Records
---
Amino acid sequence: MTIDARGCVVCPGLVDIHAHLRYPGFVEKETIASGTSAAVRGGFTTVCAMANGEPPTDSPARVEQLNAMVQSEGRCRVAVVGAITRNLAGSGPADWSALKHEGCTALSDDGNPVMSPELMADALRASERLGVPVIAHEETRDGTDAGAPNPCWTCAGEAAMVERDIELVRRYGGRLHIAHVSCDRSVELIGAAQAAGLAVTAEAAPHHLDLSLCEDAPSLGLPPAHGCRKVNPPLRARRDVEAVRAGLSDGIIDSVATDHAPHALSEKLGGMGPAAFGFTGFELALPLLLRLVRVGQLSLVQAIARLTCGPARTLGLDAGSLAVGRRADICVFDPLSEWTPTRDTLVSKSKNSPFHGQKLQGRVRFTIQAGEVHSFAGDHALRAARA
Ligand SMILES: [Zn+2]
């Protein structure tokens, strides 16, 4: 088989270590079939499913159920993240070693913080023993930042939780990964922890690298408090965006993770109050990172690394490399191709994105997953591919 990749970049299949596939429980938002199709359209060959389905992935039986659905309708590899606490309730621990033995690649209550330091310390100790990282959702419900639309997640709160968890690693050991870093102070704390030799890694979401709360609102043609801009952690100030970008380029943050969070459009209408949190992410991650390449914030090699080998290394996944003998998971993208996300151009069942109508550059042409070629190159290249 020949693939016409003229003008394209060929890189490892992208790896997303933070996604919400909404199975089980929310098939009106996304299914395993629609979510993994969107992932493949965005160049991803491995994605990690967070545990907050309904019911949550907090037992081996639930992991098995999710794996069975992926086996039957998944279009890319799905690694499973098990819950830290039973029912994500923050009180009783899940059976971590059973989750690990069922194949979970990480432990996380993502969507909820683990407020109990004792429980978090236990989870971190288990993470060291079992060899699976704890992914921390660093939110605390302590008030409101001036101007922040979401009442519950302040920069001070995020930094306090990051600081607490780094201190727990320092005292008790463990392998900590900080999800969706959004504030300048968090980046500083994580950098200092790494410099001290602690096993702490971090990810950033494409929207936190691209948008700030107020400065970008006019270019989006939307009031800053429109529900389509509501996400957790919230969009921050420009200085936070700059700090997260710098952290990504320095390697303090070595993964970009989408936090793909599909919701029906009806759930995103109205103001900040009633709207659901989150954006669809798989199909926009690569073009949004390429924006940072164009403005000189990242090299192309760095951008690809943050979407491939960085996240694969963080969770110990066999992915993100084109080395001989590794899996032939490959992404072929045209870095110059322009397109505009709309309800019609996105594959995910949910279309919730603040980037609708913005011109993006960079489009995936082929995603090769376990030997299967998914072509998005149109008729001409398809014929070439079959020649
Ligand atoms: Zn989260």
---
Amino acid sequence: MEKDLEERELAETDYRTLVDVPQEVRDRLPASFDIIGDVAIIRLDDDMVDLAPKVGEALKRTFPRLRTVALDRGVKGELRVRDLEVIAGEPRTETVHTEYGIRLLIDPAKVYFNPRLSNERRRIASLVRDGEKVVDMFAGVGPFSIMIAKHARPEIIYAMDLNHDAIEYMRENIRMNKVTNVLPIEGDSRQLVFEVPCADRIIMNLPHSAREFFHDALTRLKLGGIIHFYTICEREDIEPILERLVTEAAGMGVLIAVLRQEELKTYSPSMSVFSADIGLVDWC
Ligand SMILES: C[S@@+](CC[C@H](N)C(=O)[O-])C[C@H]1O[C@@H](n2cnc3c(N)ncnc32)[C@H](O)[C@@H]1O
């Protein structure tokens, strides 16, 4: 069939072309940013912060479904919360984010959430066997726990977090996703991990300091169980870090093995976030 089609402007997919600045400045604008629900979160170098409103408007025009664009001034403190400033759109950051069939109510200005880990969360959920006891030591608003509850059949998931807001959002997310076997527990997982039964699987998604919690977690893992360990380090340091965990575990009288490791994402020019599945193989 032959048909005359109406001419249409090609939709812009690179927001940078819509920012009205000299080319050398445009070249320094970040190519990537995070989208959580209908909120975009972008980082700018200190000397480019004045351009934030122009960047916000350009992002909104490029992605019309965005309602808010926020400037990320960095992740702070133990609770890993981002310092956000709305630079375009509605003056709010609370939103509903969807990944692999689960819906999560999140305010990224109050709780930590990383949308780039969705594949990793789905992978972990696919490993969980029927009837497992799972501990999610740094659960945030519950993305790992709810993904597991939705896609697998564990007996129970103890989902811990220090951040009161994260626990409140998690309770809401449990309701929204109609899952029944996630138990939110507010507090320091260093102590809480000793107050719940030993686990088949422990998730340690606190990449800046999970190493400090590893030995306590290991004492709470069943034989044959797995720890999902996340860490940020220089790329050449990951092997020595994992080897040290194995040696230190041997000192505690247990044999552990790194079953799988993966570089999940770049953190800085020389550093990355790594995940490692670490199995408790035997008592020495
Ligand atoms: C990197 S975030 C991960 C959140 C979540 N797993 C996700 O994927 O979105 C780490 C979380 O650990 C929590 N946290 C930090 N120290 C903690 C501690 N000692 N005990 C329990 N939670 C802690 C923070 O409040 C934060 O929500």
